Amino acid sequence: MKYALLHGWGGSKKSMEPLAGLLSKVGDEAITYDLPGFGVEPNPPLSWGIDEYANFVEKQILVLIQNDNKEKVILIGHSFGGAISLKIASKNPVWLAKIVVIAPSWKRELHESRIKNKEWRSRVKKLIPNSIKKMIYRLFFRKSDLYLRPDLESNYRKIVTQDLSMEVKNITLPTLILWGDQDSYVPVAQGKELNHLVQNSQLVILPAGRHGLPFQNPLWIVEQMKEHGFF
User: Fold this and answer.
1) Model confidence pLDDT, tens digit, residues 195-209
2) Contacts of 57 (CB under 8 A, 6+ apart)
């Protein structure tokens, strides 16, 4: 059994290395990936959204297990990486054994008026150089994911309009959902809803836990995986 780890938006495979290091000591090989546009991976085409990122990850994993058709993988995704993991799991591929999602950004609640407003602002922002955008985000929107990577704004705008509410209902694989009850980026209420929609899932909430569980509380994640049969 191999573990494949996917980082969140603005991170890289280094974000998942504390968790991967612990998993390698108690299980089989744990492999971290850079998603396109992060780490050493070049930027994706501007049209990419969750589906294209999911296809990229699937191809990487199929290369990983190409020499063993019976090899199984446990996919572990954090935040945006968790959304990608859910998208892949919704197709229940034969190579995937189980998934662990850590505060996945899987649900978007955008009203039509907000979408139209975002579209208008997006057209204006295309006229602003990335260096100026980054200065604006740094001054006024320090928590914005766009501050981290304004050059991926087109991809981000597409991703935040994609809701996986229907897809997650198709997941039949064992799914472990982990969340911090002090997560200020993705509310824990979404974890409870996800647990309700995914039929074969378990939800565990860490008191006082925040959004960055893979690098803030990696040992807790490993303990939960062990307790819930993910080794």
Assistant:
1) 999 999 999 999 999
2) 4, 6, 33, 35, 84, 88
